[in-house]
Amino acid sequence: MVRPLRSAVVGTGFIGQVHARAVRAAGGDLAWVASVDAAEAEGVARRQAADRWTVDWHDVLADSDVDVVHVCTPNNLHVEIATAALEAGKHVICEKPLATDVGAAAALAQLADRSGLVNAVPFAYRFYPTVRDARARLQRGDLGDVRLVHGSYLQDWLSRPGDVNWRVDPAQGGVSRAFGDIGVHWCDLVEFITGQRITRIAGRLFAIDRSGGPVQTEDGATVMFETELGAVGSVVISQVSPGRKNRLWLSVEGSEASAQFDQENPDTLWLGTRGANALVVRGTEGSTQGAARYNVLPVGHPMGYQDCFTALVGDVYATVRGEEVDGLPTFADGLRAAILTAAVMDASKTGGWIEVAR
Hints:
It is built from ten helices and 15 strands. It is α/β, with parallel strands linked by helices.
């Protein structure tokens, strides 16, 4: 019998606990949780059935039985912890942004590549079956040539003037907040589904007035772009849109058909042609085989965000064991996100178009 992989989650906020649940659901053992807050670490360890907890993440790396380290801390700590974990011989899943600047992200991606260890960044929306379905349809030519890609990613958790969070502090979150936090998810889906790189960007950032103190990072962005094969697109990013809890919406429109994905209704994929439109429910006869690996629940039993994380962690574990999986987002994709973020920041400053490295 194969020993379950043993994982440690560093950081016990919302996303850290999503990771902890995914570890167990994917068949791993939760060996450690780490947090600078002892009460928080102990409480999460108890709730998530972790073997041990600590306030010092170095304890995790010193444990030779730990196979995989999940880095779920504030952004400014990602590079230090992920670097140390790789140097300790651990496989690493690091939350995005991989780093708060392109240079550090590039160095970390290069270290991960040289190490030969499995590395991943949780662009988890890739793991919705309907996203895989859309990608498979595009790959087999159902949509024809991609002409237009557009959509939005809207949240409201910072919409009140007094709303504050560590992410608004560039010392902890980095120079970009809204785009670096959620805009990169949208762009990752664009490049993952279409297979095309974004090569030119123009954009504008915006921020609301806040009574809670000065905020130096953006609340949202409007971005236009072009891809390497000539498709054009636009996206609106916002964390200050009242009533929009986590609405990632994406439309890919080709010469023959269009496909639309809505993260708040992820069990269906909208498909449209000149002659007819249809809603394809995941797992039904109309779905493609591209989604089969991730259809883990029967039709009629809704799948969601936590299922995506379980699938991602499961694919990391499969890769550690030598299996080949399709579409696992690695540190190279984390670097790509940093490059796109920097391009949006530069475009907003210059007011013009920015060429994006491929």
